[in-house]
Amino acid sequence: MVYEYDYLVLGSGIAGLVFALEAAKKGKVAVVTKRSLQDCNTEYAQGGIAAAIDATDSFDEHIEDTFSAGAELGKKQVIRQIIEQGPGLIQYLMDLGTDFTRRDPSYDHRLENLSLTMEGGHRHRRVAYSADSTGHQIMHALIRNCLSNVNIDIYENRIAIDLITQHHVANDECFIPGISCWGAYVMDSATYAVDIFKARKTMLATGGAAQIYSHNTNPEVATGDGMAMARLAGARLANMEFVQFHPTAFWSPEGDTFLISEALRGEGAQLRLSDGSSFMENYHPKANLAPRDIVSRAIDSELKRRGEKFCWLDATKVPTEQLKSHFPYIDSRLKERDIDFTVELIPVAPAAHYFCGGVLSTIDGITDIRNLYCAGEVSCTGLHGANRLASNSLLEALVVAYNAANHPSMDEDVAFPRIPRWRLMGDFNENEWVVISHNREILGTIMQGYVGIRRSRRLLKYALSRLENIYNEINNFYQHNAVRREVVETRNMAVIAIAVTRSALARKESRGAHYLIDNPSRDDLHYLHDTIL
Questions:
Q1: pLDDT digits (tens, 9 = 90+) for 412-422
Q2: Which residues are catalytic?
Q3: What is the spatial order of strands in the sheet that 346-355 belongs to?
Q4: Mean pLDDT, to the nearest integer, of 392-401?
Q5: How large is the angle between the packed helices 457-480 and 434-450, nearest 10 degrees?
Q6: List of domains in the chain
């Protein structure tokens, strides 16, 4: 079946839905999401959105904190523009109905009345939040507005398989130079039918890829689909070696991981070892509020030195009422595990969390491929540099998606070639399914062990060899079997795992979220530049 729209959005987080709402002012929009609208990283974002709102704060200080946290690899012009647009677009979210926590609940929902919290790497309280479920509140408002918009159609439980580009069309009339995108091939997960979603402009808002690591904080949908599709279509990826590990993910022997917000440390919680001693003051002047890469490496070092799997987060000195009111989500998740964090310590360990790199794009979401935009974690605009400052991710997604939807190129006419139907490969071979299930598990183990928080060139080379073999096996299966969601996801995960490993091998220094034990220092003389694939 062929669906025709003005605009196609792949992904349903803050970037996808903000773009959809703005694009709907110009034409018909299709939002395609792999599962339900709520299945995205935005839904699970606890901390908030960073912005210089308070009178004691300034854009310049937020810019410097962002640039410093990113190990001076960020783009100052991009950082400034995103940060300066932040307050206005937080007001935009409030106007759509997002219920941020206020200083005075009885007072108008305006910027000056927002309650602000502190997170690692910031010098001021500048994180606007909604208790510890900020992402959920944002999604609630965006989904409500999208569902009531007559120009937006929602397609849940559908996975984009490939972007439609010159790679697919027959050049039977003339050559079409360069690379253009005319939509995507999309599979219905219930029927396995592959449809053509044809659009003048396509927005990639598919999120990150932390599922390539066996221990991560992301929902199951975060398999790097957008990054992989863009790379396979010919777009460049940038800075893929910079994978941020969140220092405090809940740890359990069963692998039941969920995020323990950095804002908890911002309110006074401390990291402790099994003997009860604190240790972050030995690693950074800001101690428990050091940037995430430093905290994650410190925990990793201490645990490996002691042969232990987790440390403790102690929030018992934070006033009980403050904990209960600010962190109700964390409270409820811990209670499910019989932990009362007002009197008990929380077991935590670092987990793969956020990609600072992605599809190379501008602050307006423009990519190497004509008619293709991207925003959010799938993209690399230059904001984060080598390491993301806490709560800058929702800010970037919001600003870039809004800019993209309002860019003059959105109004361009597009000439469509003849787009062929998806090439069907016959039956699905159940007997060979082990190729997918087994390799998916091995891939996560390799990335966790060899391409994690602390890396060595020897193990990176070993990982790359193994990953390339895994990709060849998966791709061979993909080429000879009917398509399935798990097959597409695992192929995409292998593509991104290889990209991360190759990028890590290309950077022979330690910077931000990339730590190489062979070269533990920064080398500004040779590596103060981006890694481009």
A1: 999 999 999 99
A2: 292
A3: 243-250, 346-355, 311-314, 270-272
A4: 97
A5: 160
A6: 2-241+356-409 (3.50.50.60), 246-352 (3.90.700.10), 430-521 (1.20.58.100)
